Each structure stands twice: as C-alpha cells, then as structure tokens.
Amino acid sequence: MSRLCRHITFAVLSGWMPLAVAQSAPVAASAEEAAQFSRCMASLKPAAAAAGVNAATFERHAMHITPDMSVLPLLNRQPEFSTPLWDYLAMLVDARRVREGRERLVTHADVLRRVQARYGVDPATVVAVWGVESDYGQNFGQRSLQQSLGTLACFGRRQAFFRSELFEVLKIIQRGDVAPAELKGSWAGAFGHTQFMPSTYNRIAVDFDGDGRRDLVGSIPDALASTANYLLRSGWRSGQPWGYEVRLPRGFNVALAGRTQRKPLGQWQAMGIVRVDGKPMGLPADTRAAVLAPTGVNGPAFIVFKNYDAIYSYNAAESYALAIALLANALRGEPGLVQAWPTDDPGLGRDERMELQRLLLARGHDIGKVDGMLGRASREAISREQARLGWPQDGRAGTKLLKALREGR
Ligand code: CA
C-alpha cells in the first residue's frame, strides 16, 4: 500500500486533518480545467486497455467522470501541528473502540474462527485492524472513488500513481465485485471495511462468504478474511505474539531501538531486557526481534517480532501499528501498559473529546457540531480557555483541560 495514502487515511481518521476539510464539498473545475480533464481521460484509453480495463467499462465509468478539484489541496496538505503519540493512542485505543471490538468478537465469532483456521491470524488482531481502519465499518469515507482517482490521475503531482489506482478501481467495477455507486472512500482512494487502495484490493481481497464476489464494502466475512490474508502475505507467523511491553535495563542505549534494528532475541535478553509482567518470552533465542522506545527511555518500551512488521506493513506508520497492536491486546482482555507515557497530561478518547466539545459549546464557543474530531474551531476555543486559565496556549485537548472545565474553573 502506498505510504502516502495510508498516512493520509490515518490523518483523517485520527482527526489530525479536520474532517470538515477532508470531506469538504466537491469543487467544480473551471471550463479550461474541464477541457483539459476530458483530453486527459481520452488519452488514458490505451493505458487502461493495457492494464486490463475493457473499452466499454472505460467509456461508461471513466469518460463521464466530473473532476472534483477539492481533492488537490488535500494531496499537498501538510499536518498543521504534530500530535504526541499518547494522544493518537488515547483516541485510537479508547474505551469505546475496545467495547465495540469485544462486541464484534462475539457477533462474528464463527467467521473469525474460520478466518483463523484458513489464514492463521487470531480474531483479536483481525478485529483490531478493522477497528482502526474503518471504526468497524462505521467510517468508510464519503467520496466517489472514480471521481477522486480520476481527478488525481489528471491533475497534481502524483498522476502516474493515481492513474494506476483508477485503472484498478475500474477493474473492480468490471468484475462486478462492488457496484459503482458503493465505491466511496477517502479522497485518496482507500475504501471499504479494510480501507484498501484499489491495487491492494485486487491483489489481496478474497471472497470468503462464497457469493462469487470479493466485496469489501458489503460483506464483513470478505473484509475480515481479506485483512487476515493481507497480514499473512506480509509475513504473519501463526501463534506468535506481535511483541511485549518490556523493561529496559538502566543505561540502555536508546540508539539501539527501532523497528528495523533487529537482533536475535537472546542478545536483547543478555542485555537485561525483560517483560514487564516477568513472564518468559516463550520464543527461541534466535528469534529476530527489535526494541521500540517510541518516546525514549522514560516511556513504555516494547520488544517486537515478525508479526509487528506484518501489522506495520498495513499502514507504514509506527504510531498506527502500535495502536493496532495495543488494541488487539485490549480486545484479548490483557492489562494495559505498565509504564506510563512521559506526560502529566494524558490524551483523551473520543467520548472524552465529545464531552470537552460540549463543555466548550456551553461556554459559548462556536465550534460547530460535537463529533469528537477536534478541528480548527475546537483548537482555537481550547487555546482561548488555556489563555483564560493562564496556561500555555497550544490548542491541545488533554485530561487537565477537561478536568478544569468539568470543575467549572
Ligand atoms: Ca463475497
């Protein structure tokens, strides 16, 4: 999957990019741009045919696309501010996602058992990916894939990449896997329960409910099995853990940490690295392992194995992989982290963010609707409250501010 697109999906889901911006209304092309677009699409016919899109499909589903120029600013958008890891994790692994994930484990227990038998990936991991990718199917994105990908295929700085994705989505339509009207997703083309890009879809998706279609929009069994297939193809080892929280020895050289700096497990143990719960690692001493200390030696540290890399490959972002791993642990009923993140002001889950927004509204801040996504208006309101309290104004929503507003300070 493209690093760019995974990253951007994450940005939208995490609220780093305000949803109001990410899902803004389509913007029509000027007459000149529309003419340029028509010429561009016509010029793509030979390449589409070479990629396996037949002429009738291209004519019917590509030649009548209206470009949506609102996707272009999103392609070039940079994050407005950097979000601490503990804030990402507080939102992606919050009480609601754990509760709903446990419900999904029960509701889909039979499918998940069969998925595990076929692909070797345990139910908690599959459901954790589902929960982080699309909030268990509750957030697919709302843009027409054909329209977004068509626009990005003809304008902007990554046309070759998006042309190829446009052809892949046309092949999904051509095969009859998903109806064209149901192809809605992020502006960059990730869609469905698993938020696969079209090329990933065509490579990885499986028909698990046996209706002859690989439908990652309408079929939860297809989506869960396809997630497991993705992890299996990324090197998943059945029965192995993704990793463990560990205690680092005093004086540990943090430069040795990092997902790509692998050593045999035995070497890490010889340095004095142990699980925080004191249990044995339960893997051979020659198992390849890496140590993560994402916020330095004063925060939680982890030892990670091959399955962490498989999870990482789904998103190519360390914070995202950690969210899936820790959500999977929570879904299994395992205790949370022993070592706290190095902050005296922990991040908020979505329900707490909504409570904070309600408190801001009650104080007269015009922040729009309560949705748990802290966009520009919410952050500005937070800054004004921070100023009133005499605190540094960083616009960040944390536990301290929620507590102050709850107490009517
Ligand atoms: Ca199916």
Fold and architecture overview:
- It is a single chain.
- The chain is mainly α and 409 residues long.
- Helices cover 50% and strands 5% of the residues.
- It is built from 20 helices and seven strands.
- The strands form two sheets. The protein has a five-stranded antiparallel beta sheet.
- β6 (288-292) and β7 (301-304) form a beta hairpin.
- The longest helix is centred in the middle third of the chain and has 17 residues, at 159-175.
- The N and C termini lie far apart (47 Å).
- 44% of the residues are buried.
- The chain binds calcium ion.
Per-chain topology:
Elements: H1 3-14, H2 19-22, H3 31-43, H4 45-50, H5 55-61, H6 71-76, H7 85-92, H8 95-107, H9 109-119, H10 123-134, E1 143-144, H11 145-154, H12 159-175, E2 184-185, H13 198-204, H14 220-233, E3 243-247, E4 263-264, H15 265-270, E5 274-275, E6 288-292, E7 301-304, H16 306-315, H17 318-331, H18 350-362, H19 376-388, H20 399-406
Antiparallel strand pairs: 1-2, 3-5, 3-7, 4-6, 6-7
Helix pairs in contact: 7-17, 8-10, 9-14, 10-14, 10-17, 11-12, 12-13, 14-16, 16-17, 18-20
The structure holds calcium ion.
Q: Report the major sheet.
A: 5 strands, antiparallel
Strand content: 5-15%
For the secondary structure, the number of strands is 7
Order of SSEs:
HHHHHHHHHHEHHEHHEEHEEEHHHHH
Radius of gyration: 23 Å
Bound molecules: calcium ion
Name the overall outline: globular
What is the helix fraction of residues, given as a range? Answer: 40-55%
Overall structural class, as computed from helix and strand content, comes to: mainly alpha
Total helical elements: 20
Mean pLDDT: 92
Q: Which regions contain 5 or more consecutive residues with pLDDT less than 50?
A: 1-22
